[in-house]
């Protein structure tokens, strides 16, 4: 198949999943065309059947804000037509699905049939999409898509609850290449980060308010108070970082907290970690804890959104109520101070991910879904 993929090419779960999906599909022999305003940040390996098409936005005095959605539509039309794409797969509802629907309709007027699949990732539904000013556009774009997927059952239900959606939504979870993403031998790196007897706790996010990174710092403070010697590594960046930095100073634990900024790959950091901590107020799936589990790192996460689907039954860690610092601290301390429990959770975490979320399993689901959507589109156009 020749597949066009559009995503936000920035640090974040939807861009990571879209890029790695494209790479995995290319490895299976499909021809992949990325269409975005810049090169996806994990698209760092050139292969013969992966192509990148940049969306350029011209600035005119008439526009206060460049019309990116229209420029994206035009590029989609151009790439689909001249590269003879079989399908467009867009990640994130706004504006990608809207642009894709318009591009498909333009192509239809030229007797070119190309179906579009829209994948919903989270904030496009739970936050951005529920802004009243966007609701009609999001609703129309999802319903007009030829296929719709969501990364968790939670997000599927949230979409039906928040919008008047008639289209069926297929749940296809996020995934990870467990053959290449695993715990590395990084003792030298660990020695540069902490003392031999110290535990390493890691958090990864985009430091938005919904991630509750301040709760991570408060939990870490409680861990230190009971005498556990540890370092906290905060990976990522965003609008809440300065507040979190100030909180660590106010609590007097700044020497034990390291802000590492945006890091890619994250594998090396997870490979020296003893615990992954996520205190979010909203998570549609939880790609960051999935990556941690693949590296044999036990997790303590909020019991919201799609996280229970990932954690429950895995034996990889604990779920805690959002905002309950005592619960997060108690669970974290139990894992960090019980060697047998930690070893058991570490092994179960990796085994669970390999069994349920490996690239081979999930990408096959996407291939099957693509073929279904393409066949339905062809049968509809013939009738």
Would you summarize the structure shown here?
The protein is α/β, with parallel strands linked by helices.
Shape: elongated
Indicate the low-confidence ranges by residue numbers: none
Count the strands? 13
- Oligomeric state of the chains? single chain
- Find the structural class using helix and strand composition: alpha/beta
Percent helix range:
40-55%
Please report which band the strand proportion falls in: under 5%, 5-15%, 15-25%, 25-35%, 35-45% or over 45%.
Answer: 15-25%
- Averaged pLDDT, please? 91
Largest sheet: 7 strands, parallel
Question: What's the helix count?
Answer: 15
Taking strands numbered 1, 2, ... along the chain, how are they ordered across the largest sheet?
3-2-1-4-5-6-7
Q: Tell me the radius of gyration.
A: 22 Å
Distance separating the two termini: 23 Å
Helix and strand pattern: EHEEHEHEHHEHEHEHEHEHEHEHEHHH
Indicate the topology.
Layout: E1 2-6, H1 13-27, E2 31-36, E3 50-54, H2 68-82, E4 87-91, H3 93-108, E5 116-120, H4 123-126, H5 135-144, E6 147-150, H6 153-162, E7 169-171, H7 187-193, E8 199-204, H8 213-225, E9 230-235, H9 241-250, E10 257-261, H10 267-270, E11 275-278, H11 287-294, E12 299-302, H12 307-311, E13 317-320, H13 325-337, H14 339-356, H15 359-382
Parallel strand pairs: 1-2, 1-4, 2-3, 4-5, 5-6, 6-7, 8-9, 8-11, 9-10, 11-12, 12-13
Helix pairs in contact: 2-3, 3-5, 8-9, 8-13, 11-14, 13-14
């Amino acid at each position: 198949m020749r597949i066009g993929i559009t995503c936000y090419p920035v640090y974040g779960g939807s861009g990571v999943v879209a890029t790695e999906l494209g790479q995995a599909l290319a490895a299976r022999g499909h021809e992949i065309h990325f269409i975005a305003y810049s090169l996806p940040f994990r698209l760092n390996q050139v292969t013969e059947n992966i192509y990148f098409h940049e969306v350029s936005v011209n600035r005119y005095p008439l526009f206060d804000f460049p019309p990116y959605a229209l420029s994206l539509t035009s590029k989609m039309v151009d790439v689909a037509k001249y590269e003879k794409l079989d399908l467009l797969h867009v990640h994130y509802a706004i504006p990608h699905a809207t642009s894709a629907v318009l591009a498909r309709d333009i192509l239809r007027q030229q007797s070119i049939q190309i179906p579009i699949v829209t994948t919903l990732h989270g904030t496009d539904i739970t936050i951005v999409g529920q802004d009243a000013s966007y609701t009609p556009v999001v609703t129309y774009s999802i319903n007009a898509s030829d296929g719709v997927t969501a990364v968790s059952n939670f997000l599927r239900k949230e979409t039906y609850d928040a919008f008047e959606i008639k289209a069926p939504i297929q749940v296809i979870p996020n995934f990870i290449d467990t053959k290449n993403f695993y715990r590395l031998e990084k003792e030298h790196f660990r020695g540069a980060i902490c003392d031999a007897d110290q535990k390493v706790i890691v958090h990864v996010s985009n430091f938005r308010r919904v991630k509750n990174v301040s709760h991570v710092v408060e939990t870490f403070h409680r861990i230190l108070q009971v005498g556990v010697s540890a370092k906290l590594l905060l990976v990522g960046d965003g609008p809440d970082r300065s507040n979190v930095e100030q909180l660590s100073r106010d609590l007097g634990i700044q020497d034990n907290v390291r802000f590492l900024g945006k890091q890619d790959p994250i594998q090396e950091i997870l490979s020296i970690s003893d615990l992954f901590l996520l205190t979010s107020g909203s998570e549609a799936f939880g790609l960051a804890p999935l990556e941690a589990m693949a590296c044999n790192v036990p997790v303590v996460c909020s019991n919201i959104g799609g996280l229970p689907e990932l954690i429950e039954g895995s034996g990889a860690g604990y779920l805690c109520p959002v905002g309950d610092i005592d619960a997060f601290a108690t669970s974290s301390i139990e894992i960090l101070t019980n060697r047998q429990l930690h070893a058991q959770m570490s092994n179960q975490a990796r085994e669970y991910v390999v069994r349920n979320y490996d690239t081979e399993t999930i990408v096959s689901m996407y291939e099957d879904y693509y073929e279904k959507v393409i066949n339905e589109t062809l049968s509809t156009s013939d009738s």
